[in-house]
Amino acid sequence: MFESKNYSPTRIAFYISLSAAATALLIAVLPGGGLIKISSIVLGVFTVSFLVARYFINEFIYRRVKLIYKFINQTKASKREEFFQKNILPQQNLDEVGEEVLKWADHRKDEMEVLERNEAFRKEFLQNLSHEFKTPAFAIQGYLETLIDGAADNHEVNKKFLSNAYKNTERLIHLISDLDEITRLESGKQELHYQHFVIQDLINEVFETLSIKTSVKKINCLIKKGCEQPILVHADKEKIRQVLINLVDNAAKYGSEEGKIEASIYKTDDKTVLIEITDNGIGIAEEHLPRIFERFYRTDYGRSRNIGGTGLGLAICKHIIEAHGQFIQARSTPGVGTTFGFTLPLAKK
User: Fold this and answer.
1) pLDDT 10s digits, 38-59
2) Which has the closest alpha carbon to 292: 275, 304, 280?
3) Which class does domain 119-187 fall in?
């Protein structure tokens, strides 16, 4: 009769009514009468109804609450855990259970939104990655096919096509190298070799390294007046060199003819220094700023591609600076210029 584990409200009501009626009938057929018999019927019906109702309601509610918890936690409780939850822990009322389920539902909704954003980012990343690889690969294929079809006999065409194929091969190598760099940084396998060095000296070294590129556009590279006082930082010098090269190189690419690239260095407190690289180039629209550190994100895809680069430079900068436990950010005004700023820890005296 009571073999089911999942009682419906109707069946529970039926069992309670049946138990009360059977109790009343049993007492009624007993010998005797008067006030004692009436009292016995009332007391008997109340006691049996209470016990039966308590049993079925406990079973009905507990099983459903346990099912909800299994669904929420996606796990099956052990016998010991079930006993502990049922008999030792204070029992939650339905309002408390409902509130907990709503919190769980909100949490799941947030998780789904994050997963959807990640999926959209993954698709966009794969599309961009495919495009970045296909462009040089198809170019190399085209040059080689032309040479195979007979252009190899023409010395002038031969040299030009081989040179272009080589340039696209270099681009593929840089792309693979940058992707490998990001993978190592994200996985934590890229070790940082900390040392003390003067940040102004490193900035001047980077300016000298890129002097040929900046001189083509007659860009003046300098350290801002008042920021020349040597500041000793504690970081991986070669990694920070890579960050500065990427930032100065970007400033040169998008900077104005006969413009300037200015480096500023400020102590923000006793532990941190802020380094800023500013250009007076084309600038970046506000809607692009939140995404410029994403892999392959380009504010103007066609123009960026013509200028060159793998589209991974700023992403690498972000990973390197965050690996130091610091932050990097950008601010820009179209037509005025762009400033990239990042922090580094000061060297302890």
Assistant:
1) 777 677 777 777 777 777 666 6
2) 304
3) mainly alpha
